[in-house]
Amino acid sequence: MKRSASIGAMACGLLLASAISAFASNTRSASCNTKLAEDIPARTSAAPAGSTLMQQVMRLSGRARDAVVKEQVLAGNVPSFLRNLSPVTFTGKQADGQAVQVVICVLPDYLAVGSDRDFVRIPMGLPTAAEIADRFGFFLPTPKMVDAIYAQAKVRLVASPMPANDRMRSTAYLLQHNRTVETQLATFSVPAKDLTAGEKKDVVFSLRLRAHPGKVAIYGWQRGNGRPIQPLSTVHGAEYADYSHGIRLVSGTAYVDGAPQPLADVMQDSRLAQIVSSEGPIANAQALLTSLYQ
Q1: Which of 130, 150, 185, 229 could pair with 197 in a Cys bridge, judged by C-beta atoms 3.0 to 4.6 Å apart?
Q2: How far apart (Å, rounded) are the C-alpha atoms in residues 132 and 109?
């Protein structure tokens, strides 16, 4: 009897060790490393600092500013810390009831231009944001991803809205808000590469973009209680962007139970889509992303 119990204990121990080993293997596989951001060119020493570039576009807004920003970002004028992607984990059940874990890899902060020492988070219209995402092998987040990013962020900032007026889209306004965010972050003693959220509304990927072509979908900007100021909205035209908007890129590679899989496949898979999107499957997700800027 004792021997039987001992064998049973050994078997349980082996099963536990196997489970731990499998979990560790999945964790290693689901590594959000810089390889996923390798399509972002290296920043050159000649690239202007964020503050310098903002002075160059101080009198610009909308499409004109986006054109300058797009050129800089696609040339790699992006802080290096943004290339250290952060994992965000979803756990759920497939349609057949089987448990599943999905890990997405996201920029640790909103897209910015400049160096690690001198950068500015920059809002941009949907066509520009979608093209940058697509060219770098990324997507924009779904609203459900935005909520998960906020919930799992190491640094959660409280939204700090500025007065609504006709200057909201100006470069001066976005710079003022960027300074506010930096002041908030100064109270945290954490590296820039740590996942940070709460300081912006997100330009998001949504089925509404297919139903309302020519519009931008925005969502988020959580209050202190974690509830977003901005419900999912497609009120504005696609090229609209004000100081409160941020661009959070999500790697085109996700990990399903530790195995790499195209995020586009996950988002359109009827068994998995509900785990990363409250809207259900997004058919032809890659084609939808491309259509937003072509």
Answers
A1: 150
A2: 16
